Amino acid sequence: MRKWWLESVRDHPSAEARRRLARSNAHTAVKIETGDGVEVADGGEPWVLDERFLREEHHNQYGRPWILGRYMFDFLVDSGLRPEHRLLDFGCGALRLGVWAIGYLDAGNYFGVDSHLESLEAGAAYELPLHALEPKRPRLLWSQDFALSHFGTEFDWIVDFSSSQKVDPPALPRLFASLVGVLAPDGRLLTAPRLSAPLESYAEWGLTLVREVEQDAPLLRGHTFASTTRWWQFEKAGTDPFGVSP
After folding, report:
1. What is the pLDDT of residue 44?
2. How buried is 5 (Cβ within 10 angstroms: 0-12 exposed, 13-18 middle, 19+ buried)?
3. What are 104's strand-pairing partners?
4. Which of 62, 149, 189, 228 lies 20 to 30 Å from 113 when distance is taken between CA atoms?
5. What CATH number should be reported for the domain whose range is 15-236?
6. b/e for 99-119, b at 16 or more Cβ within 10 A?
7. CA–CA dist 182, 155 (Å, integer)
8. What pLDDT, in 10s, does the model give residues 160-211?
9. Do 197 and 168 form a contact (C-beta atoms < 8 A)?
10. Which residues contact 61 (CB under 8 A, 6 or more apart)?
């Protein structure tokens, strides 16, 4: 049974989903963008914030606690993320990492993409206002087809936390072609808690492994879910230590 926060990247958005998006965007400061640029009128129907968001049900849909987003953010900063860097949060969901990263980054430097509209709505309609993050101008993309070039920029960092692991294996080369295509010449891709394919495949896709790190999450110790996270850091193949590509 498919859980409500997951959708296949092969799904095509329904007319009802687009109408819901239009109604939501009419009442949020940060608009959820679409890869195909199609806009749908809201039909004048009233918009009401989903009560599930007020109950913060979206905080419990990840398998590990919401606090993991803080640990993800800390790892990024320890790894070299700086306010002037552009960050792509691939599979950003309801902004578990985003609520920390958006406030830290310079305005306009956070980009999130997800295939599940309700998660993006939770982020845009609830989390961003709750944390007063709208002035940071984050950009959120609803895409079910890896339309990462939609943003028209390259990224210093890309975070892939579990999201590529949900992609059908035959579609992985296309996904990673999109990821590598928007990664800056000296950019880094961080993936966790497992690899989506053998390391040899990452090399074939144009990524070089530079380190593997296990991160501890002290607040999660002594419970049924994992209290450590294994990270792999990749760079574009051909990048030298000084960040200059041939």
Report:
1. 66
2. middle
3. none
4. 228
5. 3.40.50.150
6. bbbbbbbeeebbbbbbbbbbb
7. 6
8. 999 999 999 999 999 999 999 999 999 999 999 999 999 999 999 999 999 9
9. no
10. 3, 4, 5, 93, 94, 119
Q: Cis omega before residue 193 (within 30°)?
A: yes
Q: Which residue has the tokens 């803080």?
A: 70
Q: What is the pTM of this model?
A: 0.89
What is the rounded distance in angstroms from the CA atom of residue 161 to the CA atom of residue 181? Answer: 19
Residue pair 19/8 in contact by the 8 Å Cβ criterion: no
Amino acid at 136: K
CA–CA gap between residue 229 and residue 231 (Å, rounded): 6
Statement: residue 212 has pLDDT above 80: yes
Report residue 59 as tokens.
Answer: 């905080």
Distance between first and last Cα of the chain: 48
Instruction: Give me the pLDDT at residue 23, please.
Output: 86
Specify the residue for token string 């210093």: 156
| Segment 48-58, tens digit of pLDDT | 899 999 999 99
Identify the CA nearest to 87 among candidates 165, 172, 187, 163.
187
Instruction: Name the strand (E) or helix (H) holding 208.
Output: strand 207-216
Question: Which residues are CB-contacts of 197 (< 8 A; sequence separation ≥ 6)?
Answer: 169, 172
Residue 191: DSSP 8-state: E
Neighbours of 202 (CB within 10 A): 22
CA distance 77 to 93: 20
